[in-house]
Amino acid sequence: MFTGSCLCQAIRFELNGELSSPRYCHCNKCVKFSGTSPAAWAMATSAELSLVNPNAEVTKFNSGRGLRCFCSNCGSGVWFESIDFPEIVGIPLGVIDEGEIPTPEQHLWVNSKPDWCTINDELPQREQGPE
Ligand SMILES: [Zn+2]
Ligand SMILES: [Zn+2]
User: Fold this and answer.
1) Looking at the whole model, is its pTM more than 0.90?
2) From the CA of 39, which ligand is nearest?
3) Distance, CA 86 to ligand 1 centroid (Å)?
4) Which CATH topology does 2-20+41-102 take?
5) Domain limits of the chain?
């Protein structure tokens, strides 16, 4: 069980399940959306994600293969809805407040990593996305 929230707390969510495949993503879309690199994510089951306040205003931007969902008030990214795999959501690790947050296990999309970002760990690196 995890809880999460945006910066202004208008969006609060619960995740009644596990977080899997924690990763650092360096793709150009995550860099733009987060404003930094890498963006840290883990995967969850969409059916297990629920809003504490169902009236919270979530804006969804289609960045190509999925919807980047963010708070309409403060702009915090709160989750990612995959178009190819609608049963899966991505959760940015920084919005999680409670729960055993997993540590990222690999770097993805290293071929689009900005030059100013230096990787200082021994984790596996993939040129592109997950297999
Ligand atoms: Zn907010
Ligand atoms: Zn990415």
Assistant:
1) yes
2) 2
3) 24
4) 2.170.150
5) 2-20+41-102
